Every structure is written in C-alpha cells, then in structure tokens.
Amino acid sequence: MSLAAAAPHGFLSPNGVEIAFLLVGLVTFGAALVTVTTRQLVHAALWLVVTLGGLAVEYLLLTAEFIAWVQVLIYVGSVVVLLLFGLMLTRAPIGRSPDADSGNRWAALAVALAAAAALVWVVVDAFRTTWIDLHGPAAGSTEVTGASLFQNWVLPFEALSVLLLAALVGAIVLSRKAKAETTGTPTVPDARRGRAEKEGAR
Amino acid sequence: MHLAYPAVLSALLFCTGLYGVLARRNAILVLMSVELMLNAVNLNLVAFDVWLSKTARDTLHSGQALTLFTIAIAAAEIGIGLAIVLAVYRNRGTSDIDRLRDTAEGHETDGPDSDAPAAEKAEATA
After folding, report:
1. DSSP letter assigned to residue A73
2. The whole model's pTM is what?
3. Who among A14, A64, A194 is closest to B50 (CB)?
4. If pLDDT is split at 50, 70 and 90, which confidence band does A2 have?
5. How far is A97 from chain B (nearest CA, A)?
6. Owning domain of residue B18
7. Which of A111, A132, B32, B74 is least crowded, fewest Cβ atoms below 10 Å from its Cβ?
C-alpha cells in the first residue's frame, strides 16, 4: 500500500500529506537548483540523484506507487549511472571547473525567471480551487496501472518496444568507430589493434 | 491535497531545467537539465491523473500510461544523446557545446579552433 491511502485515514493525515509534499518538494527543488548551478560536474550528477529520488517520494505521496518504483529503477538506477559514465569518458574535470556555465547565463536566468513567473501565475490562477482526493484505493497501484496499460494502451506499448530497439541499435552504431576510416588505411593490423585498445579502455 | 502544489513544483522544476539547458556549457550537463524538464512533465502528468481518476468514474489512466512512456523515451533519449556526445568528443576532443560552431552563421573566426579539432581527428584515426 502506499503511504497516503492505507486505512480509512491513511498513514498520514491529509494535512500530513500536504506538509510532507511541501517539504520533499522544497528538497527536490533545492537539489535541482544545485544541479544546474554547481561547478563540479560529478556533484551535479549526484545532486540529480537527490532530485529524482525526491520526485519518486512525491509520486508515492500522490499514491502512484508503480510510477515511483519505475522512477527509482530507471532514473536513479540507470540514467544517472549512464550520465556518470559519460562524464568519465569525456574526461570531465574532477574538481571545480570555472567554465561550467557559458557566457549567456544571465540571459538564461532572465528567460527562466520569466517562464517560471508566467507558469506559476497561470497554474495557481487556474487550479486555485481544485483539490486532489487522496482517500480510497491508490490511484496508481501496480494492479490498476497494469490493467489500464494492457487493456487500453497495448499498441503504444508495443510501438515503444520497437522504439527502444531502434534506440539500442542506434546507440551501438553511433558509439563504434567508423569502419571505413580504419580499414581503409594500409596498416590494417595497427589500426585494429588501436581500436581494440580503445574499446578495452572504454 | 491542493492540486496547485504539484503543479507549481513541476513548473519550478521545468524552469530550473530550462535555465540549465540555456546556461550550461558541458553537453552532459545539458542532458541532465533535459532530464529535469522531462521529470517535471512527469510529475504534472501523475498529479493530474490522480486528480482525474478520483473525480471521473472511468478513466483510461492516460496520465500514468503516458508517464511510463515518457520514462521509456527518456531512457532511449539519454542513451542516444550520450552516444552522440561521446562520438563528438572522440572526433573533436571536446564536449563543450560553445565550441561546436561549425554550422553557426555570422563572422566566426575559426583560426585556432579549426586547426585543433583536425589535429585531434588525425590523431584519433591514426
């Protein structure tokens, strides 16, 4: 069962759910801010873990538990590891790098603040009087999500598997070296050996 | 719970990701910011799906299904994006998107910048 809808009143009272949502939301937003502003590249990836984990807790508080565990598995488990691998393979500096932000950061800050003001104003104005009812059965338990996914969303699900296969093949093709360059040279064994060493280093 | 809480949080996270995409210089940090934006959209979808599933009788749970699809597409996107960044790094010796200006218009004096990547590429193919 989820955190909010266990019993008639749940593990947390409605106000408790709101307070927990606010606190976890503050932590999530702060970690996101640190992610986009820190000068240490590896720390940015680690703060991204905090952000994504906080979002998983928010999903749990919204009684969408299957999404929460998928978030933990895919984002925290694999996407951040991929990003850390990417940082290592591009030889990102470990310490502070002074040029992590480009020169147009003030324009970017202005754009982001304007977008945030507009979005928050519109959203608050539109949903001022709307409440989510978190009582009753969980809205996103595994049973409910699986039933709706395999009753109503089967065709997009299968199309998505084809897309994942295409992305897999594309990533493999992109990340191997071009064969025409290496085998076209007269010193084929040297090129092959260099490539093997490079792949081993990778 | 008030619906404005998750909506405002997702708007703020989206704008944080927007700032990161515009202000960061390393390509992998830009990819992280794109992930932040996608996650903001996911939070919105989940919140509105929970709201609709309690107000309407029969729903398709389209918000949560779309969230799962978004997560899968984001995983594919991060794989392809990192493969592209690694290929660019192998060819050009940098993952700094301010220096990848081959298709940029304007008065770009690519004196030292055009020599260094060529040397890197020759070194990489040798």
Report:
1. I
2. 0.80
3. A64
4. very low
5. 10
6. 4-106
7. A111
